[in-house]
Design brief:
The protein contains four helices and two strands, in the order E-H-H-H-H-E. The protein has 121 residues and is mainly alpha-helical.
Length: 121
Amino acid sequence: MTEKKGSQIIVARQGAVRNFINQFKLILRLMGDSRVSFLAKIIPLGALAYLVMPADLVPNAVFPVVGVLDDAAVLWLGSFVFTELCPPDVVKEHQQALAQELHAREQNDDDGEIIEADVKE
């Protein structure tokens, strides 16, 4: 029989997924903030409505990859425009709060940077 080799996987703290999650949390916080205009709050709702609508700018049947990319582009553009229309001091306040939460979570994490795993060959 072959021996199992121990392996260590290093988990990155930053990256595309982490940025997406932070942006999503920021949008949720801004949507719940009364200092943000109601009209601005329509933008992310419209982007989500576009995502679930059966009609697209580029039909998925014709160009499947482009059809997915246009959905992603609308979501990105909607989140970008929304955060730009929110009061800058409110956005900064929520970004700082999210950064503090992340820092506190990292401090409470014992040794979350290394994960022990067995490799099967």
